[in-house]
Amino acid sequence: MGLLDGKKALILGVANKRSIAWGIATAFQREGAELAFSYAMERLRENVEELVATLPGHEKMPLIECDVTKEEAIAALFADIEKRWGSLDVLVHSIAFAPIEELKGSFTNISRNGLLSAIDISAYSLVSLTRAAVPLFEKSGGGSVMSLTFNAAERVVPSYNVMAIAKASLEAETRYLAADLGGKNIRVNTISAGPLKTLAASAVKGISAARDLWEAKSPLRRNVTQEEIGNVAVFLASDWSRSITGATLFADNGMNIMGTME
């Protein structure tokens, strides 16, 4: 018997096999969850289809396009999920984007439009998606929402720039959504992972150095793995974490406790 047997989970943000969202998806599938996936645009569909096709029972897993900057697209996504499933138990927000030119150079040179774009897609989308998911969570008697953050919200990571502001916004939203929705038995948390080698992270010049730093200075003297983050997500999706909400869970091999990052 799996920890997530009978639970229905919608996962947003799978880009390729290195995506944290994919690590979460495989962990969820292992623990018995029913899965649905959303991708941002048509050109990403093939990548997601190929990955999903490797999962047992993939024929029954919905793949739905959704541009999270458009409220009508979000409404259509959840209308589709309601038609297929009737309810929802878990929402995984693993979405982050910033224009590439905003992830290099001096922080003082970030642009207004670049910052707003990063916040819109990487942070505000959590509010939009959660709001749309509430009626489906209510049909299940509650639900679990989780997102992905990085400790650059509290510490300076060179070149993370606008994404640091977006992640700080995401963490604040996590607390406010948790307070807002707790009465409906909907929990909202975020996972602060170590610097995994993902497609999104590859655009940030300082992340490569951060991975070396993790291996040298974190209490466990190694970086985290995709599987480990997936297991933390299983915990948050399961009834084992039913007393946890509004939290930033550090899955970073203890790096967040260190007084120095050098």
Task: Summarize the SSE layout with pairings.
Elements: E1 8-12, H1 20-30, E2 34-39, H2 45-52, E3 63-65, H3 71-85, E4 90-93, H4 112-140, E5 143-149, H5 161-181, E6 186-193, H6 205-217, H7 226-237, E7 248-251
Parallel strand pairs: 1-2, 1-4, 2-3, 4-5, 5-6, 6-7
How does this structure look, described?
The chain has 7 helices and 7 strands. With 262 residues, it is of the alpha/beta class. The protein has one domain: NAD(P)-binding Rossmann-like Domain (Rossmann fold, 3-Layer(aba) Sandwich). A 7-stranded parallel β-sheet has the order 3-2-1-4-5-6-7, with helices on both faces. Strand 2, helix 2 and strand 3 form a beta-alpha-beta unit. Helix 3 packs parallel to helix 4 and helix 4 runs parallel beside helix 5. The longest helix is centred in the middle third of the chain and has 29 residues.
Radius of gyration: 17 Å
Reported by name, the CATH topology is Rossmann fold
Strand content: 5-15%
> How does the overall form come out from the CA principal axes?
globular
Helical/strand content category: alpha/beta
Uncertain runs: none
Strand order, biggest sheet?
3-2-1-4-5-6-7
Number of domains in the coordinates?
1
Total beta strand runs:
7
Q: Which architecture does the CATH hierarchy give at level 2?
A: 3-Layer(aba) Sandwich
Major sheet description? 7 strands, parallel
What separation lies between the terminal Cα atoms? 44 Å
Mean pLDDT: 91
From N to C, what is the helix and strand string?
A: EHEHEHEHEHEHHE
In the CATH hierarchy, what is the class?
Alpha Beta
Helix content: 40-55%
| CATH superfamily caption | NAD(P)-binding Rossmann-like Domain
In DSSP terms (H or I, runs of 4 or more residues), the helix count works out at 7
